[in-house]
Amino acid sequence: xxxxxxxxxxxxxxxxxxxxxxxxxxxxxxxxxxxxxxxxxxxxxxxxxxxxxxxxxxxxxxxxxxxxxxxxxxxxxxxxxxxxxxxxxxxxxxxxxxxxxxxxxxxxxxxxxxxxxxxxxxxxxxxxxxxxxxxxxxxxxxxxxxxxxxxxxxxxxxxxxxxxxxxxxxxxxxxxxxxxxxxxxxxxxxxxxxxxxxxxxxxxxxxxxxxxxxxxxxxxxxxxxxxxxxxxxxxxxxxxxxxxxxxxxxxxxxxxxxxxxxxxxxxxxxxxxxxxxxxxxxxxxxxxxxxxxxxxxxxxxxxxxxxxxxxxxxxxxxxxxxxxxxxxxxxxxxxxxxxxxxxxxxxxxxxxxxxxxxxxxxxxxxxxxxxxxxxxxxxxxxxxxxxxxxxxxxxxxxxxxxxxxxxxxxxxxxxxxxxxxxxxxxxxxxxxxxxxxxxxxxxxxxxxxxxxxxxxxxxxxxxxxxxxxxxxxxxxxxxxxxxxxxxxxxxxxxxxxxxxxxxxx
Length: 505
Fold this sequence. Notes:
Elements: E1 3-6, E2 9-13, E3 27-30, E4 33-36, H1 37-43, H2 45-60, E5 63-68, E6 74-76, H3 81-87, H4 95-109, E7 111-121, E8 124-132, E9 137-141, E10 145-152, E11 155-159, E12 164-168, H5 181-184, H6 186-204, E13 211-215, H7 224-238, E14 254-258, H8 268-282, H9 298-327, E15 338-342, H10 345-348, H11 352-363, H12 370-376, H13 399-402, H14 427-447, H15 455-461, H16 463-478, H17 482-504
Antiparallel strand pairs: 1-2, 3-4, 5-6, 5-15, 7-8, 7-12, 9-10, 10-11, 13-14
Helix pairs in contact: 1-2, 2-4, 6-8, 14-16, 15-17, 16-17
């Protein structure tokens, strides 16, 4: 019979109630010693690394509420009841903490519970959301939950299913309760706990080598008091303290014989790495994100960052969204064509340069006014009315960039420029045309190694590089205008490649 105390006072003495299809006791056996899930999270770094990684990344994504107005359009509803309830769940919790605790509970228990607290706000019914500890919750029922039981201070409080937002994972042995990943990781976690205990005992012993003390066969026998005195002195010496770093001097005829596995023989380092890899695999997290950088490069980490939101967080987010729509949205007055979506686009967006290049290519002309650019730099707006207009396309592409040959490399540029191809009176064009042709030749040499259908995609991927190289070539001739001319020329090349690709298709 457990005794429950609260603030030093005896509150209740109660036998655990039998609840039919109840959950486990939220603890697992690690080599004979039971540890609660919360204790494992607290003491096992590999578990905490994975759970915190998921919790922080999910909490960082804001769930947004939208209304579908057509097959191709939608409207964000920032003031919708559901958005308000999730944004300000209760006076002591903000949205980030609510979803961080939700994902932590799912990562540790594979179960999470929110209590719906009903109240009136501006003369309208509203709902507050309060996290309930999974280790204190139990689901009662058959195929469908009949009630939720919260055991606190030794007392049970029942809630109807309509009063709880319940998130749970799949458990083949108990359809009502999720099966914690820690149960699957039990053997790995037991190994990590044993390794930690061994490390602690080693350093408590001042890091001394383990072994046995042997006495020569012809040495005189010790009396029991002598044996007890030697044992006491040796234990005081091996316990560390003021004797750390000192050398033991054994009586004549006694020798120390090392008797232990080395760190290499016991594969301690490899075992620790394996345990972290297995924990990361259980939570479907790419290894570089949990500190395993053996094969990490800039390119593959960049790709794994994309996969993180598609393969790792994607299923979690879909499950959370469906539960929010199925258990919270039904409480709202306005439910017509309403849905919830996490703002993944904000995390998947590239750098400013990548976004600007993509917009420049998709628009084909300047896409921001002068005053919009000045506002981004915290500068006052220019009163000139022209600064509120988007500038027209600057100039036009040369023949070399407007009509690229996508299949065969161009002939090497001539030293002299044809009088028919450019304006004799335009000194800049006479200098720019050969530079553009040389850049086009380099681009063709690179693209012609690829299949025709892959050239536009490859060119777009390297667009930042082509812009940078052409800007450097044009700067001695055009000065500050080199960057704009380089972007213009490369956009024309990409457009021509896309046109040829569409025609071929």
